[in-house]
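Consider a protein example.
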Amino acid sequence: MEKEEKKYFITGNTFAIKDQLKDLGCRWDPETNQWYATDKKLAGKAQKLVPSEPEKYIIGQAPYEMRDQLKQLGAKWDQQAGEWYHTDKQMAAQAQELIAENGRKYFLTGNAHDVKEQLKRFGCQWDSETKQWYHTDKVIGAEAQALIDRGPEKHFIQGNCYPVAEQLKEMDCHWDPETKAWYHFHKETADKAQELVRNGAEKHYIPEVPYELNEKLKQMGCRWDAEARCWYHSDPEVGKEANRLVQDTRERLQGHESKLNKSSIVPALAAEAEHGL
């Protein structure tokens, strides 16, 4: 019976020296996926050719969603051990700190109501238990806190806002007593308000308004110009509508007066005819 030959396996990363191992007479074992030699001295010589592996500094396990961050740090996954590691001790410590911070909530303090939309864009989340905004990233959390501390950005409305002050209030604009100017936190709304002020610089007058339309014009947002002694509106479309209303009312009133005059003239002519005039 033929005696089974003994296999002396060569361990480590042998891929780079496989040709040298072949030249030495080493063979590949498909069952163990390792090179080996049947001679102990030859195996020892082959083992010396295998480059020494760098020391592994264990990082440990980490949430799956952190894999890209760890790879960016240069960390590697050990399939057999089922954990992350790094060949640099300092980077391994940095990776461990990153894992430790993952899931940690950095809460934000102060009045965040006026900047909540910006906080959402930062990726901040609302904690319903503590009723506070927070972020899981320390650096972004610090940026978000700085935003709250300095307050929301004010988009100021330039020009003479007095004629449209009531409309600005309706748009939720605010008055800044320090700068003595109107502003809004949202740029789009501020732009609309600015357009309103630009149009409002011109007064669109509604002349010869019958007294009975005064309340109606007030409801339409028209104002009284004491100097010109005339009603006006800053919006040209509303001004046109008010003028049409005045014109229609005047025509209606004139038509009514005409009927009254005719009804009084007929009896007068009849009386004159009766008396032979």
